[in-house]
Amino acid sequence: MSPIRTPLITTVACMMYSLLQLSLGLPQSLLGLLLCLLQGKARPRRFYRGCIVTGWRHAGGVSLGLFIFIPAWSGAASDPDTAAALSLPPAWRPLPISSLAKLPPAVRRIAVHEYGHTWQSLLLGPLYLPVIGLSSFIWANWPCCRRWRQQSGRSYSWFWTEAWANRWGEASTRLPGLD
C-alpha cells in the first residue's frame, strides 16, 4: 500500500530536500547557482521535487546539488507556438513540472538520470564533486574515454557513477533513465 501524498506533505518534502541540498550539497549547489545565473533569464526554469531544472543549449545534462541542467526542452519552451502546444508556461516563470513524463522522451531520460545524481549529492555531501563530479566529467568528455566507449560498445551509463545515478533516478521517479 502506497502512502497518501497530500499537497502539504509533498511541499514539505520538497522544502526539506532543498534545505538538505543547500546544507550537505552546498559546494555543488553554489556551482549550480553560478551556472544557472550564467544561463541568463531567457532559459526556462522549472521546479521538480525540490530541484531547479534549467534548460540549456547542450546535448547532455549536468546535476549540481539543487540544480539540474537538461537539453532540448529549452528550445521548445522558448518558442511561443511550441510552448502553447505543449501547455508550457512562459520560460521566465518557474512553475512546477508536474511530471517528468511530459518532457520529450530523450530529455526525460536525461532528467531522470540527473535527478539520480542529486541523490548522490545528498549522500556524499562535499565529496560529491571530487568523487562523482570529476569521474563523470572525465568519463563524458575525455577523448580516450569516448573512444573506448565507442570501440567497446559500452553505453555512457555503463560507468559506475552513471549506473548508480540511473538506478536512483529510476527508483525515485519510476521512469526510465539513460540506456
Task: Explain the overall architecture.
With 179 residues, this protein is of the alpha/beta class. It has one domain. It is built from 8 helices and 5 strands. It has a 5-stranded mixed beta sheet with strand order 3-4-2-1-5. α5 (105-124) packs antiparallel against α6 (128-141). It starts with 6 loop residues before the first helix and ends in a 6-residue tail after the last helix. The model is unreliable at 74-95 (pLDDT under 50).
Count the DSSP helices: 8
What is the total number of structural domains?
A: 1
Question: What structural class is derived from the secondary structure elements?
Answer: alpha/beta
Overall outline: globular
| Through-space gap between termini | 30 Å
**Portion in beta strands:** 5-15%
Oligomer: single chain
Mean model confidence by pLDDT: 82
| CA-atom Rg in angstroms | 16 Å
Low-confidence stretches: 74-95
The helical percent reads: 55-70%
- E-strand count: 5
Q: Helix-strand pattern, N to C?
A: HHEEEEHHEHHHH
Largest sheet, in brief, is:
5 strands, mixed
| Strands ordered across the widest β-sheet | 3-4-2-1-5
